[in-house]
Specification:
about 300 residues; alpha/beta; 4-stranded mixed sheet; 9 helices
């Protein structure tokens, strides 16, 4: 059974108020008030002078559980929300792995689930390891991206992106944080430029909670869990408003939804799930043996949920 052996997180030290970013993006005062008062955004972690390799390197450097086990890493997966991150022929992922003694691993990127792609990467890592003959084989999932364009930093009327990163070591049979289920609901009719299509944006916002709830319920059913058994829900950090609505709709206590990082970190693409897992385990929000659920949505549109037992 797929297990998340260790998670490490890097948050750039610079914390920027959303107004400073909004001014650069050309947001109006009304739009900024919406983000702050309704969506619950405040600060964004950014590294204006850093590169994508810097971001991933910092997260990987915090993953102490990898030290001495590099030779067992068979697969490295960069979970990336954006289809393109650097110009051809640059390949920062392979350069990073060569520098860390991981050049022997099969390394690739997964995309097309947008900000839900982190859960896809974990599921794929588990599937690859299940077919590997080496019982000590490991997979490494990396997540983290740069806000290098306006489209990469803004979902209209929904969220503003930050630049946190995470690294996760995955095994086929660990004792802790074992994956119980993974459910995906895809709605390709919402694929398009939300910033330029007001009708598409309105329909996406209207149906978003229902489809997210559908994915959550599917993951719980597959895992054989009830909602009231969950120690916590770890959401993506797009905003607080959507998760208040979802918690109310499913009847789950809002104080058990890990929303702290929406305020203090911001929406860090596919890294949100692992950043919030790191927060939940560090604070003792989830304890050994307790189930929890990770949930994420990506424009395009993909809605995913993964049930895990700590």
């Amino acid at each position: 059974m797929t297990a998340l052996e260790a998670v490490a997180v890097h948050l750039p030290p610079l914390s920027v108020p959303i107004e400073a970013v909004g001014e650069r993006l050309g947001l109006t005062p009304r739009q900024l008030r919406l983000f702050r008062r309704f969506h619950g955004l405040d600060q964004l972690r950014l590294d204006p002078d850093g590169t994508l390799p810097d971001l991933l390197e910092a997260a990987l450097g915090e993953l102490g559980a990898l030290n001495g086990r590099e030779r067992h890493v068979r697969y490295v997966i960069h979970a990336r929300s954006m289809p393109v991150a650097v110009p051809h022929p640059l390949n920062p992922l392979h350069d990073l792995l060569d520098a860390h003694g991981l050049g022997h691993a099969s390394a690739f990127t997964v995309t097309h689930h947008a900000c839900a792609v982190g859960l896809l990467a974990i599921d794929l890592a588990g599937r690859l390891l299940a077919g590997d003959p080496d019982p000590q084989a490991l997979a490494l999932v990396l997540a983290g991206e740069k806000t290098f364009t306006r489209d990469a930093q803004l979902v209209p009327e929904t969220g503003i992106f930050a630049e946190g990163a995470a690294a996760c070591l995955v095994s086929a049979g660990g004792e802790r944080h074992r994956v119980l289920s993974y459910a995906v609901r895809q709605r390709p009719e919402f694929d398009g430029r939300l910033a330029e299509d007001a009708d598409l944006l309105a329909r996406y916002q209207r149906e978003y909670p229902d489809v997210m709830v559908e994915a959550i319920e599917a993951a719980l059913d597959e895992a054989g869990l009830r909602l009231d058994e969950l120690a916590a829900i770890l959401p993506h950090n797009v905003n607080q408003a959507s998760w208040r609505m979802i918690a109310r709709r499913i009847g789950y206590p809002l104080d058990k939804v890990v929303l702290d990082n929406v305020l203090s970190v911001g929406h860090s693409f596919a890294a949100d799930s692992l950043i919030n897992l790191h927060t939940a385990t560090t604070r003792g929000t989830v304890q050994r043996g307790e189930p929890y659920l990770i949930a994420a949505a990506g424009v395009g549109a993909t809605f995913s949920a993964m049930a895990v037992r700590c």
